[in-house]
Amino acid sequence: MFICIYKEKGKYVAHSTSDKNDFENDFSTQKIKHDAKSLASKKIDADTKFSILFYEFTISMMNYLELLPLVASFTPAISLSLQEKVISEFVMSNGTVLEDEENRTVVRLDGDSEYGLAELLENFSALKTTGQQIPKMLLIGAVSSYEFHVANLMRCIFEMNPRLMRDSEKEVKIHEILTMGDIEDFKKYVLEKEIDHIMRQSAHEQIKWLESSLSIDSIQKSYKDYSILMEIFERRNLFAHSDGVVNKQYINNLKKFSHPDFEKLQIGGHLSAKPKYFNASLRTVAEFGVKLIQICWRKAAKSENENADDMLGNFCLELINRGEYQLSSKLLEFATAMRGKKSEMRRRMDIVNLANCYRLMGDSKKSEKTLNAEEWSITSDDFKLCVAAVRGDVSEAVRVMKRIGSEGDIEASTYEGWPVFRGLQTEKEFCQAFEEIFGREFSPRNSEPKSIIGAIIRLSSVIDASEKIDTVALQPKAVVSKTSGSPEDIFS
């Protein structure tokens, strides 16, 4: 691989990668070339639109899961840090030092300096208010991204099933028809008008439309966190239209969906988006969105089930890589309980990854129970090795490693990078076996979950300590799920 880092006035501004050293001289030209190449490589037809939609949604949610909590958490810290720094500099420059001790300095301000400090404090009060608004705006953005992809999901469904368009009862005015170039323009106009009408309704009504269009059983009944999901959408509406002030409609809607907290609310109360709520909401939206697209995809394009299985499994593995164990376990429980034909390899891969999720969350009993429900003696050495690794059976893992050898399907980089081997990376016997097989020292990739937050935290280690913002609270932590057993239906 080749990497070209582009500069502007001596500063690094962008980069591009390529298998060949064929970069353009400036980044704008390189970007046009890259975009054209990417577009040409994507054949978008009826058979691939769902896979592209799923990919784009998962990438969007992955970015939100990592970046938004970071921004939401940094904002108050930056505001406080900036406030204290500016106030200290103003006071020291405009006052008289009375006491200067190791842990405090007392300064007297007179005359105009007092008014100057009062003005500063007033400005910082406004900054604090702005800092409190940013998490609200970010939640609005995350929900809007979900809605954007739901609209695209509906677009795919309409195009796969033209009958839905013929059954539409929307009225079109004559002068609107006359402005159309041809019948295709007219179809697109009606399609967008129909989708716009559906998307202007509540999230609940949008889901009801999907149920009706694809003959899906009640999602509200089968998704156990439905009331929590609806509260997120309702709170987003409050943030967008009333700055989070509770109204009667919000309370009535929570009551309608049997939300456990609706009785605690009072009209006129003020809702926020504190870190705990904010992070949980992002994961709920991501979980539900993935499940919704998967179910609709399988209903609308049954021939693509294998592709849907693989993309769901690969996304869950990427979540494990990034330390999102609880979200990954929920989606893997969904995947393993999915009805319908599935390749044996994919089915077993999902089971191993699910068991590994439980282990990484600290629930070894649940991990072992998941593995014991299957017969592994009849599987290939690849599966036997992974199962032994998840179980923490070092001796068995080493025996299978040596049997596979250096020419097998599992390469050295796999042992060093796959999350199933995280529990063995500190085991002396495992490391020695690796060295015997591959003739070099075992060098695992960072055993900590990879993430943007983690990268920023590692980068911050080179910054002078006096300039750092405390990032300990921002590090992703696996949350152990308290639920047990497999889902009873598609949305549990």
Tags for this model:
492 residues, mainly alpha
What does this entry show, briefly?
The protein is mostly helical and 492 residues long.
Shape: globular
Which consecutive residue ranges, at least 5 long each, have pLDDT under 50? 38-47, 455-492
Strand order of the largest sheet: 1-2
Number of separate structural domains: 3
Gap between N and C termini, in Å? 43 Å
Report the sheet-strand fraction. under 5%
Order of helices and strands: EEHHEEHHHHHHHHHHHHHHHHHH
What is the averaged pLDDT score?
A: 82
- The computed structural class is mainly alpha
The percent range for helix content is 55-70%
Question: Major sheet: size, sense and barrel closure?
Answer: 2 strands, antiparallel
The rounded Rg comes to 27 Å
Question: Count of helical segments?
Answer: 20
Q: How many strands? A: 4
Write a structural description.
- It contains 20 helices and 4 strands.
- It has 492 residues and is mostly helical.
- The chain folds into 3 domains: 2-41, no CATH class; 49-93 and 128-300; 347-474.
- The strands form 2 sheets. Strands 1-2 form a two-stranded antiparallel ribbon. Strands 3-4 form a two-stranded antiparallel sheet.
- β3 and β4 (105-108) form a beta hairpin.
- The protein is globular, with a radius of gyration of 27 Å.
- Mean pLDDT is 82; it is low at 38-47 and 455-492.
